[in-house]
Amino acid sequence: MTLVISTLFIALDGVVEPDETWHFPYFDDRVGAAVAEDYAGTDVLVLGRVTYDSFAGAWPERETAGEQDAAFAAELGDLRKIVATRGSQDLGWRNVAASSDVVATVRELRQADGIDKILVAGSVSVVRQLLAADQLDELRLLLHPATAGGGRLRLFGDDAASRAFALVASEALPTGVVRLVYRPVAAPPTKTSEDVVAQVPDAQVPDARGPRTQGSDAQVPDAQVPDARGPRTQGSDGQGSDG
Fold first, then answer.
1. Which among 101, 176, 171, 86 has a CA at the least distance from the CA of 133?
2. pTM score of the predicted model
3. Which residues pair with 182 in a beta bridge?
4. Distances in whole angstroms, Cα of residue 18 to Cα of each of 9, 58, 122, 123
5. Which tens digits make up the pLDDT trace of 31-59?
6. What is the phi/psi pair of residue 142, to 5°?
7. In this structure, are residues 186 and 208 in contact, taking their beta carbons and an 8 Å threshold?
8. In 3-state terms, what secondary structure has residue 140?
């Protein structure tokens, strides 16, 4: 069975455009390992045009430079890539082909022999199309502990339909990033507030006097007012001692 998986960096306010403000300060070796796990075993990488241009503008040069990330850059170059675009111009990287109908292409890839995993990296427009067509099996999010601010691209637009997901895995990473893996599922039955009122716990109002022992009601001792003359010995009432 072929799995189609989406992997995304996401801010607390739903923004999925990584930048130096909310993404890079939280990227460490554990986040890198999570990304590597998402890419592991990928047979086909599917990208939107904007994401592809970002990849093609950076990774070939990094591979050539031969620095620390050159091995990963080479893996990306060798990987079969499908780009969702209606343009006909040269895409300028090896092992890449264009698709004018990415949903149809993914359906065809599912039927092809030897393809077990299709990864959609970033590419929110593609993620939305595949979700709408029921062609996405997993939504993997690396949720960052920061907001990105308004006017940015979000995972789901204001006009997006309601969708249900099942959480199948989660992991908190040292920098505060939380790795979340969801699978699309059928929406649960609709409920109203009246349907769930029985699950609302009774309000527990604490007693300002603190905990009371059994039978303590009506057994509160009278106030003890100290005698201004100080402590008195047995029989001292009206019986002052001789001096």
1. 101
2. 0.79
3. 139, 167
4. 7, 15, 10, 12
5. 999 999 999 999 999 999 999 999 999 99
6. -110, 95
7. no
8. strand
Q: How does 5-26 read in b/e, with b if 16+ C-beta sit within 10 Å?
A: bbbbbbbeeebbbbeeebbeeb
Question: Cα–Cα distance between 28 and 112 in angstroms, integer?
Answer: 36
Q: Is the pLDDT of residue 229 over 60?
A: no
Q: Which residue has the tokens 């969708």?
A: 163
Outline where DSSP puts E strands in 15-88. Answer: 44-48, 80-84
As a whole number, mean pLDDT of residues 134-152 equals 93
Q: What's the Cα-to-Cα distance from 239 to each of 230, 232, 233, rounded to whole Å?
A: 15, 11, 10
Question: Radius of gyration of the chain from Cα atoms?
Answer: 32
Q: Which residues contact 118 (CB under 8 A, 6 or more apart)?
A: 2, 3, 4, 5, 42, 43, 44, 45, 46, 106, 109, 110
User: Which residues have C-beta within 8 Å of that of residue 93, sequence separation ≥ 6?
Assistant: 55, 56, 60, 77, 81
Q: Interhelix angle for 124-132 vs 102-111, to 10°?
A: 70
Token pair recorded at residue 157: 């637009």
**At 150, is the pLDDT very low, low, confident or very high (cuts 50, 70, 90)?**
confident
- Helix (H/G/I), strand (E/B), else coil: 84: strand
**H/E element, 143:** strand 138-143
Burial class (CB in 10 A: 0-12, 13-18, 19+), 115: middle
Residue 119's φ and ψ, nearest 5 degrees, are: -110, 130
Query: Which residue in the block uniquely carries the two structure tokens 């990774």?
Result: 59
